[in-house]
Amino acid sequence: MIFIINNRYQSTGSNELLVIPYVTEEELIQRLKNLSEVKAKEIQSEKIHEKYTEFQAAADVEFWKKLNFCFQNMQSGAAGGTEQLIGVQNGTNGIVPVRFLKLRKGRNSWQECLNDTFRSLGRELTGNCGILLEGFSLRELPLETITEILVRAMYYGAYSFRKERLQEITVKGVYSLREELKDEKESCRVTLISGADLKSSIKKAADYGECINYARMLGDIPSNYLHTSEFTGYLKELAKDYGIEFEALGKKELSTLHCGGILGVNSGSKEEAVLISLYYEGEKGAPITALVGKGVMFDSGGYHLKSLSSMEGMKYDMCGAANLAAAFEIVLRQKSKINLLLLIPAVENLIGPDALRMGDVITTMSGKTVEVYNTDAEGRLILCDALTYAQKRGAGRVLDLATLTNSCRKALGDEISGIFYNDETTGEAFLAEAKHQGEKVWRLPLDQSYHRLLYRTQTADLINYAPEGDGGASVAACFLEEFIEEGTAWIHLDIVGTSVNRSADRKQVKGASGVLAASVAAFLIQQV
């Protein structure tokens, strides 16, 4: 999908739509009147006169009058429903198909309303279109923000996975194919019609949209095409492209560091476990922030084997890692002045002769020992080692993203992610940015009552699962908190429910969602 900006409407063919978003009938009619009925002698502002002249040159006054007439007929029922294509005769350009898009706010924020409307447009788009932004405004949002939202939303709606390129991965690698593995309707050109300079807004939104779709593409790849080695290769090429530091710690190095969590979870797999790190120095001497993403490439549950229905979609258990890789790349593209460490513990949780068993005790990088009560509570075991490593690398602020507990999904459903944090200032800043990005996040508790459940073991310092299973999301978060040192600001995000679009609808295809990549990136950029 190609976005360009133009200060006048020029039809390039009968398949081009002039899409006019509006809020109320009165507001749209006023916009059309401003463009079509104001006499030059009545205009006091030279700036308004210039805009009027531009539009008059692009499409004559009669065109806008006809557009107004069609809208009024549509509202009265003469032209059908509230979202209909209407052919308007424009003297020099022939018939221009026009669609009026009504923004239905309801209880949603304007961000959500715009997001839904333009995701749907991106999903259904089959040809070129023009979107009239001249004169369009929302009381709460400037035009630049509106532009960013609609461009990102159209990228999101346009995405689909190109399954026909899948087999090429074994030869070319994932990174070199990442443009071909996703379809974003590259043949469609979208013209944003406005006299304002929106180029930087379009570029920023395109960076977000493209990177989030990379995360969705990674999630949608079947696990037999994306093992730990392929994912490591993807991140290595990403680091090479941007000229940043890359490190991959394999079995030998992880054994030396006593990473019993990462190695233990992966012990049933023939693939090598890897702790991948990428480091970006945007400001020498500045504090380091670490992003830690759960990278379980496939989760069978281990010896606590999942049922058929529970195992479906377990290739998506690495979406935390994929989404943070996307957030990391967005920060790189924005050239943010932040020192950022991305850590991905990449494993497979399978059954084998050496796989973890119930009652086994492992030693983590921190030195703490853990009794494995549930082999399907594996995410926290790899994250605890990565969290320790992040702090050893000097991170004073750590954010982890993980498809961690089904308990969180049961509590919050499929549209709201869970958040836990130990520092009020950091947590509230993230919540504010997530709201600004139109992503829903709800705080869940960290409390000593959950920590106490983790101490009920006779053979280790901690147990990895509360036997009763109650309060599972908070228990898992408190397990991770056991590995956060005093003075480290920490956010944990649980995205089991939100990591996947479980069915296709008018706004999006079925598959990985890329959830919270935008919020994490924007939070990091705003915090500089």
What does this protein structure show overall?
- Helices cover 39% and strands 20% of the residues.
- It has 528 residues and is of the alpha/beta class.
- Strands 9, 10, 11, 12, 13, 16, 17, 18 and 20 form a 9-stranded mixed β-sheet that branches.
- The longest helix has 22 residues, at 199-220.
- The protein starts with a strand and ends with a helix.
- 46% of the residues are buried.
Q: Which secondary-structure class do the elements indicate?
A: alpha/beta
What is the 3D form? globular
Residue ranges: pLDDT <50 for 5 or more in a row?
Answer: 35-60, 74-94
In what range is the share of β-strand residues? 15-25%
Total count of helical runs of at least 4 residues: 18
Report Rg: 26 Å
Count of β-strands: 22
How are the SSEs placed, and which strands pair?
Layout lengths: L1 E5 L10 E6 L2 H12 L9 H13 L2 H16 L8 E6 L3 E9 L7 H15 L4 E4 L10 H16 L1 E2 L7 H4 L9 E2 L5 E5 L5 H22 L7 H15 L2 E5 L1 H6 L3 H6 L8 E8 L6 E6 L1 E5 L8 H4 L7 H15 L5 E11 L11 E3 L5 E3 L7 H14 L2 E8 L3 H7 L4 E5 L2 H14 L3 E3 L4 H6 L8 E2 L8 H10 L7 E6 L5 E2 L9 E2 L4 H10 L2
Parallel strand pairs: 1-8, 2-4, 2-5, 5-8, 11-13, 11-16, 12-13, 15-19, 16-20, 17-18
Antiparallel strand pairs: 3-4, 6-7, 9-10, 10-13, 14-15, 17-20, 21-22
Helix pairs in contact: 1-3, 4-5, 5-7, 7-12, 12-18, 13-17, 15-18
